[in-house]
């Protein structure tokens, strides 16, 4: 589905990421991890066609991402960030309804039955039905994050790109969002998201990409990519991994 060849990304004229070649198939959950400044968000934006490559190529379904019109790209990719870009006076339902714009001609915005169904389904998925008529400005940062997720679901794009989808969320809400994303993958969608906690990738992703040293340190199945040795190289910290009595793998910095 996504094919990257010799991708190079620069910031302020200086190399950030280089010599990146990889593929992401349909129906995968990929977690992108690395230290602050490693290039995670820049890479995600380049994959989504929101940031041009400085070298190499990004293709979606064998077509260069730069060749997609904004409307075509929005029907193919839902991009979720925690940045607040909507007017505060909008209601939660209004914000989520923006996910339906790519399915309408710009001069033909009249809500159709399926639009209402998609919006209602998205509200239910993130458990915000009772918030539908609340003004966006009155929500907590965690509630706003769930609204962004709902917008992406309402968009009904086969690809979901998310930049730190669990930021600002408490433990319960974060787990709910990650389970929801896993369900989207199990239903046939592809999820690529930037994560800070290796444990989230270990629990929900299929593959993990570790960025370090201006490129890809590892992009493999999570069992290998999230090994203590590779994580230590990526983060500069000694790491340990244990398996709990319930069979859950936990990763954490070593205390020694």
Second rung of CATH, namely the architecture: 3-Layer(aba) Sandwich
Give me the secondary-structure category: alpha/beta
Placed side by side, the strands forming the largest sheet appear as 6-7-8-3-9-10
Poorly predicted spans = none
Helix proportion range: 25-40%
What is the β-strand count? Answer: 12
Here the CATH topology equals Rossmann fold
The CATH first-level class comes to: Alpha Beta
Looking at CATH, the homologous superfamily is P-loop containing nucleotide triphosphate hydrolases
Quote the beta fraction: 25-35%
Question: How many distinct folded domains?
Answer: 1
Helical region count?
A: 9
* Averaged pLDDT: 90
Summarize the structure.
The chain is about 35% helix and about 30% strand. The protein has about 260 residues and is an alpha/beta fold. The protein is globular, with a radius of gyration of 19 Å.
Describe this entry's structure for a reader:
The strands form three sheets. Strands 6-7-8-3-9-10 form a six-stranded mixed β-sheet, sandwiched between helices. A four-stranded antiparallel β-sheet has the order 2-1-4-5, covered by helices on one side. The chain has a two-stranded antiparallel ribbon with strand order 11-12. The protein has helices spanning 40-47, 70-76, 92-97, 113-125, 141-155, 171-186, 198-204, 222-225, 228-235; strands at 2-11, 14-24, 29-34, 55-60, 63-64, 77-80, 159-163, 190-194, 207-212, 215-221, 239-243, 249-253. Helix 4 (113-125) packs across helix 5. It has one domain (2-253): 3-Layer(aba) Sandwich (Rossmann fold). The protein is 33% helix and 28% strand. The chain is built from nine helices and twelve strands. It is an alpha/beta fold and 256 residues long. The mean pLDDT is 90. The N and C termini lie far apart (43 Å).
